[in-house]
Amino acid sequence: MTRAAEGGLKLDAYLPYRLSVASNAVSGLIARAYQDRFGLTIPQWRLVCVLAEDGPRTQAQLVARTVMDKVTVSRAAQGLARRRFVERSDHHADGRSHVLALTEEGRALHGEIAPLALAYEAALISGLSPDEVALLKRLLVRLQGAASALSASQA
What we know:
Elements: H1 15-38, H2 42-54, E1 57-58, H3 59-66, H4 70-82, E2 86-90, E3 98-102, H5 104-124, H6 130-154
Antiparallel strand pairs: 1-3, 2-3
């Protein structure tokens, strides 16, 4: 008899699985909307958002801020640059690095997509009270911190 059959691990009750399934469902829904309406991938949208919020950033800073790997950030940045939503300039202190910034077209794109993103969020949380939403956000931040700490301790 397996451990699951004996009352051990039950996938549907396993928190990492539930988080992954929920994340995939939400990301898939939003990815379809961004792809269909704007031709953007989720990584590209994240870069647009970060650059709109934080201003020009190096790819290393974008990797840290978005928690995406270097290759994903690089490909997203290249795609955005090809479509003239971002521009690359040399880093003043590090000749090997580039700084990415939104172009005027990129800022207009963000202005068009941001209300859609907020509407999706509102629809997703419509069945939750404001207190539940606040609690969920706090718990997710704590879980992310715990995962980062565990990852660092294993490195």
